């Protein structure tokens, strides 16, 4: 269940190198012959391969046109434009669950004394509403980390469309006798424990090394794409040419009060 450990920060929007290669190819095929200063018109953008010419204009009344004194965390378009404050909580959780369930493997970060944040890849054994259950070896470093500091961060990233999820929470339970271990156990888990040949440490659900880790969410942010790969490349390219802010998806936040309500709703549905 454990991947290579490495230090990590909170999830951030990442862009694959292929995007940059494709954008560089697109831009290198454009030859700007003349740009008049302080005008919004590129006088000539010639596509070398097709010999077709076109012009593009930058809107003179862009909403991003702000004075230096007017730019802050609420008005900066590179920040404010990304946030979705209009969707309902129901829609936000529905999309969150779809993204997390589709990825299945995330990076679980714990805090290690004297080192700092340490992360490793973990397969989610079960998602219970906004919370996550894992199976882990009680002798692993992650368990010793959690014994001294229960705060965790869990991240997911889908490189195919740039969706990501960041969960801040607590490991509210790390136990070897939780009955849910048998419920969420699958045979493939034994591959990460091995059979020591003593009839006890066999990688099964009753192996004394088998621990359940329950991560209870306190704050969640996630990014959901709103355009495909081609649309994202077009949006980024257009933003570079016009000075606008690219928008390839929406950023959403779920705070503790929202999460607690979703947890209660999920419990009511499953009870």
UniProtKB/TrEMBL annotation:
Region feature Disordered, mapped onto this chain: 53-78
Sorted alphabetically, which Pfam families does this protein's record hold? Pyrid_ox_like
Q: Where is the composition biased (Polar residues)?
A: 53-77
Against SUPFAM superfamilies, the record matches this protein to:
FMN-binding split barrel (SSF50475)
Gene3D superfamilies, from UniProt? Answer: Electron Transport, Fmn-binding Protein, Chain A
- The record places domain General stress protein FMN-binding split barrel at 94-244
Q: Which InterPro entries match?
A: Split_barrel_FMN-bd, Stress-Dev_Protein, YdaG_split_barrel_FMN-bd
Q: Which PANTHER family match?
A: PROTEIN BLI-3 (PTHR34818:SF1)
What is the protein name for this chain? General stress protein FMN-binding split barrel domain-containing protein
- Which organism is the protein's source? Zymoseptoria tritici ST99CH_1A5
């Amino acid at each position: 269940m454990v991947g290579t450990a490495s230090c990590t920060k909170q999830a951030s929007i990442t862009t694959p190198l292929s995007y940059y290669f494709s954008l560089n190819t697109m831009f290198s095929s454009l030859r700007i012959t003349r740009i008049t200063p302080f005008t919004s018109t590129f006088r000539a953008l010639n596509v070398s391969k097709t010999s077709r010419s076109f012009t593009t204009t930058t809107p003179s009344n862009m909403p991003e046109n702000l004075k230096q004194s007017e730019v802050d965390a609420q008005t900066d378009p590179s920040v404010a434009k990304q946030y979705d404050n209009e969707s309902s909580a129901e829609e936000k959780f529905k999309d969150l669950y779809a993204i997390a369930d589709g990825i299945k493997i995330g990076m679980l970060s714990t805090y290690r004394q004297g080192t700092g944040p340490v992360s490793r890849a973990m397969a989610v054994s079960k998602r219970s509403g906004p919370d996550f259950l894992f199976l882990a070896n009680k002798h692993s470093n992650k368990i010793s980390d959690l014994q001294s500091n229960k705060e965790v961060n869990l991240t997911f990233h889908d490189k195919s469309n740039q969706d990501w999820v960041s969960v801040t929470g607590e490991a509210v339970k790390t136990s070897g006798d939780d009955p849910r271990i048998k419920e969420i156990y699958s045979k493939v888990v034994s591959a990460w424990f091995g059979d020591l040949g003593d009839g006890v440490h066999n990688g099964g659900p009753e192996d004394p090394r088998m621990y359940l880790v329950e991560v209870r969410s306190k704050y969640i942010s996630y990014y959901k794409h709103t355009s495909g790969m081609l649309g994202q490349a077009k949006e980024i390219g257009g933003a570079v040419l016009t000075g606008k802010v690219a928008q390839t998806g929406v950023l959403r936040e779920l705070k503790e009060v929202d999460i607690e309500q979703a947890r209660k709703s999920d419990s009511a549905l499953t009870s």
